[in-house]
Design goal:
The protein is 62% helix and 8% strand. The chain has 150 residues and is mainly alpha-helical. Strands 1-3-2 form a three-stranded antiparallel sheet.
Length: 150
């Protein structure tokens, strides 16, 4: 097992999530909630399908995460004026403040995750992870979909 890449990736993910929770405990936010909030703040208001594509999350997960964020008044959801089947989600001022407040703790968690590697190794590791994720994107249950510009 110790040499299987899937097993090692799973273990590293578990460690990364544990470090995120450790550093961000005071903010009561999960990695997925952070990802959705960050997506909304970086890209503006979006429908749930677009959020899922941008954050590489499946429809059910996006719906659950958005519901949790709405309960905390970190996002709002309104009916789309263009498509009655669609709901548009946007970050509230409270959500924007939380993202700003938690940012340093998230970075510390990321640094702790990468701390066993040198700066050069970290850069190479990120490059290789991005290459793997991009090349295998179509095989994901929730593939990342890039936003169309313009």
């Amino acid at each position: 097992m110790a040499e299987l890449p899937g097993h090692l990736l799973r273990r590293c993910h578990q460690i990364s999530v544990a470090l995120f929770h450790d550093e961000c405990a005071d903010f009561d936010i999960t990695p997925l909630q952070f990802a959705v909030l960050k997506t909304l703040i970086e890209n503006g208001s979006q429908d749930q399908a677009t959020i899922g594509g941008t954050a590489a999350l499946d429809r059910t997960t996006v719906a659950v995460v958005i519901q949790k964020l709405m309960e905390r008044q970190l996002v709002r959801r309104v009916q789309s004026t263009k498509d009655k089947r669609s709901k548009i989600v946007s970050a509230t001022e409270r959500g924007k403040r939380l993202l700003s407040d938690v940012a340093q703790s998230v970075m510390i968690a990321q640094e702790r995750t990468m701390s066993p590697l040198s700066h050069t190794e970290s850069a190479e590791f990120i490059r290789l992870l991005r290459k793997m994720a991009d090349a295998n994107n179509a095989h994901s249950r929730a593939p990342m979909k890039m936003r169309k510009s313009g």
